[in-house]
Every structure is written in C-alpha cells, then in structure tokens.
Amino acid sequence: MSPETLQQLAVLLLWIAPVFLPFVIHPSGPNRFGAPHRTEGFEAAVRNGFARAFDFKGRASRGEYGAFLLLFVGVYCAAALVDGAFGLSWLYVAPIVLLVPYISLTTRRLHDLNRSGWWQFLVLGAGVFVLFYLLAQPSVQPLRQSLRRPVGPVRMAGHR
C-alpha cells in the first residue's frame, strides 16, 4: 500500500470510529453526577441555562437541553436572516455569546446520561449525528423514580 492510501484510510477511520463509540462504551451503575435536575417550561429552562452558564457539574434534563437548543438555533437563524437581508454580519455575535452556556448545558445533559462531558468532542467528525442521538435519549434514572416520597407516616425527630 502506498503512503497516500494509508493516510486516506487513517482519515476515514477517524471519521467512522466515533460512530461506533456509544455502542461499545456503555455506562453502568448509578448515575455518578448527582441528583437529577428539573426545570418547568421554556422560560425557566433558558433562565437556568444562563444562570448556570459556567457550571459544568450536575445534570440537565432533556427538556432543558431542548429549550436551550431551540433558543440557540433560533438566534442563529435570526442572525442569518438579518445578515442576508440587510448585510449586518455583526449580529453573528449573538450565537457566539450563547455558545459557552450551550456547551455547559450539553455537558450537564451528557452527565444526565451518565456520560462524561468529553463526549462533546464527537462533534469534530461524523460523530455529530451520534452526539445528537445520545442527547435525545431519556435519562439513566428517570425523575419519577429518584424523587419518590416515602410511603407511610413520616416521623419527626424527637417525637413518638
């Protein structure tokens, strides 16, 4: 084989290998990233995304991630439309400002799936589709099971 062929095979392997990672690496056991986090509604999810913009610890629900993704894509599309109509390319600053909160929220969403935030590097190749597949998966521990109340009467400390 020629060196060019080997180089082409190596590049092809770098693009194809990430597609199979989620099927080979399965997280097992209880979620190691803490208790589940729950937000209600679009506005609360976006507010929480900005409030925890530099927080790469903890977990984020699928709804919270979806709401912020919708905001991110909407802002980008609005900037592209205004740039196309009026030539105001400086409006692309708005999606760039949303990039850090989006990355931290994606990290927390991957934590909710019991995976490391480093899985975001799949976006550098053909693994972008695999990453979106992973982010759309339900939580490892459903909220209903982890937030159960105790059954029976609750006793206060010091009372009989």
TrEMBL record:
Q: Which domain of life is it from?
A: Bacteria
The record lists the membrane-crossing segments as: 6-25, 65-82, 88-105, 117-136
- Write down a Pfam family by its short name: DUF805
Report the GO terms under cellular component. Answer: plasma membrane
Sorted alphabetically, the keyword list is:
Membrane, Transmembrane, Transmembrane helix
Name used for this protein in its record: Uncharacterized protein
